[in-house]
Amino acid sequence: DAMVIQNPRYQVTQFGKPVTLSCSQTLNHNVMYWYQQKSSQAPKLLFHYYDKDFNNEADTPDNFQSRRPNTSFCFLDIRSPGLGDAAMYLCATSPSSGGADEQYFGPGTRLTVT
Amino acid sequence: GQNIDQPTEMTATEGAIVQINCTYQTSGFNGLFWYQQHAGEAPTFLSYNVLDGLEEKGRFSSFLSRSKGYSYLLLKELQMKDSASYLCAFMDSNYQLIWGAGTKLIIKP
Predict the structure, then answer these.
(1) Is the pLDDT of residue A1 over 80?
(2) Predicted pLDDT at A2
(3) Of A25, A49, B94, B98, which one's alpha carbon is 20 to 30 angstroms from that of A59?
(4) How far is B78 from chain A (nearest CA, A)?
(5) What's the pLDDT band for A6 if we cut at 50, 70, 90?
(6) Hey, are the CB atoms on B31 and A100 less than 8 Å from each other?
């Protein structure tokens, strides 16, 4: 089945220790998104790629970086995690960013910062 | 500016009907989505409305009034597995999704 996969599902890191979350997709979609979602809050868009074209949201902290080496994979790097970065990180894909397409979500990675 | 609002929590009884409302304000609009999110899981797509009116899909229906900036999700014949958060999100003029915080629906036997 075509899908969006995120690894790991649960990640524990120490305060200030860099961490990388990964996302892969078999849908061959052009657009990939990274969201941060805290409990009982709306998903917050961090950035998205249209193909290799990177789009950073204005309020995304510099502490968050992303890489998309090819169509299938996308990574979220948190350079120096703080306690406030503990959240669910959701990866999503859509066929294009110029149309009203639904977004397909991966299962998420729950990040704990100790 | 843009904003979107939905109730924080609702309670309903198994077998009953519940309506979850969503209001929004935006200058550019390319449709409204409803997603279901079970606790600790990713959102899954339920419905999309871009024209006024009711879209029915099994036990779930979604309604849109663009002039009123209003949508609702109607769930019929509620089952315990429908206990989840329901997020509405509109797509703005840049085709970006603007999300509500979600309505937590609690189903009681």
Answers:
(1) no
(2) 66
(3) A25
(4) 22
(5) very high
(6) yes
